[in-house]
User: Fold this.
Amino acid sequence: MVEGIKYTYVCVNGKEYLGIDMNTQNVKITRSAELILEKCLKSVWSIDTCCPKNHARWNKESNPWAGQCLVTALIVQDYFGGDLWYCKHYDHYWNKLENDLEIDLTINQFPPDFEPCFDCVKFRKTVLNDKNLSLRYNILRNLVDTYKGGL
Ligand SMILES: [Zn+2]
Assistant:
């Protein structure tokens, strides 16, 4: 930890992990924090946190990412800040951080050559006005907060 540098922390299961150095855009550190969160999410995503219109696509083993993009982007924003980015063509959300890094923890639900385009920023308050989304976010938030898996 260097004085004068703004760090963001990821806290899972009550432990604190080093996150992003927002000034030097330290990708290595970012990636490790991202991986910790990704592992946690992958183990707690469920049909209850999946967007209803994607229920048929969701599968714990083969497609745990399906329908989890917005709730996941909100959790990532809890830790890393930044903006929620949205592609209307695929109805897909991911994160754009203040240091210009993009994090998309649910991109694996799409084919390997998938490239969403940035169509607009979505605002947290606005998306959480949706009752179903708000419910699913709270379920996921609680699952992440009480996650007991090994890290
Ligand atoms: Zn688009």
Notes: The chain has one domain: 7-145. Helices lie at 27-44, 69-80, 124-127, 131-145. The first strand starts at residue 7 and ends at 12.
